[in-house]
Amino acid sequence: MKQRVLSGMRPTGSLHLGHLVGALANWKILQDQYSCFFMVADWHALMSEYENPQKIRDWSYENVADWLAAGIDPERSVIFRQSDVIEHTELFTILSIMTPLGWVERVPTYKEQLREVKGRDLATYGFLGYPVLQAADIMLYKAHAVPVGEDQLPHLELTREILRRVHFLLKKEIFPEPKALLTEAPKLLGTDGRKMSKSYGNTLKLSESEETIRKTAQKMITDETRIRMTDPGHPESCNACQYWGMFDPERAKIVWEECRTSKRGCSQNKKELAEVLIEQTKAFREKRADLNQGNDKIEEILQEGAKKARAVAQETLREVKDALGLGPAS
Ligand code: TRP
Questions:
Q1: Residues 111-125: what's their mean pLDDT?
Q2: Are both 51 and 170 inside the same structural domain?
């Protein structure tokens, strides 16, 4: 039997190019080797968006349409929405009871978010439990592997600690220890050279038109030490050249050499890069356009997925409740 993978994304906005080359390309490949569960983490979204939650539903549809266009296949993978599988909240409650307060209080992402995220009150009882809910997500499907970005490693570490504690308290081994599957793709920076993030406004949205891709590419920050075209360029510290390396590694070698020897100017470089980006995302855009027929089809896929997810989740929860002596004996 194939090992299981679970991963999720919070529906808090549109997906961008970084999601495509990072998470989604990885998910797509994993479908061949694993039995995959891909989840719209709408409970997790609610934890930060609860003051203004009305967009979570539409973002969920939009994100799933992007997943499908990127090659995530509902015939092979289970695509579902967290809130459709009630067992997530049930296991979350059980894990909350067993998780020492100190463990969640010292999760670095928690402290960081409280400090960094402005304009939202994240000092809630629920938000402290964010990584505990994530542990429940992973454990419900007895996932062996979890594809995540590096920023999520503390959550995976906490998941393993909670899992061991549950085994100790239940005197029963139920769950495999999940390992992180980090993407090999190097991190795609935003157009301004900072981390790609919608809060910085430096992303290239996946739904963008060709025209916007051209405009955005032209605004990219390049080698800041290169003032005139006759100055030699430094491709290793030029964001546009890094994009070349990722989207057309063959031609990148020539491009880099031309930059170093001042045969290629930055504006020209970005103009040609835009065409590469357009070409490389063409299949995605075409597939995405086909999916733009309202949300009924997506909702259908989510309901099918929820059925399959629930079957696994219910079985796990039955085992846990049995070991706890909770509810009727099975
Ligand atoms: N916290 C993850 C993120 O922000 C999303 C997520 C929720 C997740 N549950 C998960 C990721 C379970 C992996 C496994 O990216």
A1: 91
A2: yes
